[in-house]
Amino acid sequence: MSDTITLTQVKSGIGSTKKIRATLVGLGLTKMHKTVTRKDTPEIRGMINKVRHLVRVEE
User: What pTM did the predictor assign?
Assistant: First the structure.
């Protein structure tokens, strides 16, 4: 695996549960089409898995 993962929010968190919205904020995704780069750790992978229907992942 690479050292970093690039995430882009492609769907809105509106209408999702509070946990899912909090996970998006924890990843640093606060607006649509915002892109962030995070370290590839098991914790980040777990968060991505929780919101995989709202984000696009590029390794």
Answer: 0.92
Amino acid in the structure at residue 33: H
Distance, in Å, from the CA atom of 12 to the CA atom of 3, rounded to the nearest integer, reads: 27
Compute the distance between CA of residue 46 and CA of residue 15 in angstroms, rounded to an integer: 21
Q: pLDDT digit string (tens) for 8-21?
A: 999 999 999 999 99
SS in 3 state form for the chain?
Answer: CCCEEEEEECCCCCCCCHHHHHHHHHHCCCCCCCEEEEECCHHHHHHHHHCCCCEEEEC
Q: CA dihedral in degrees (29, 52, 21, 36; nearest 10)?
A: -10
Nearest to 24 by CA among 4, 42, 10: 10
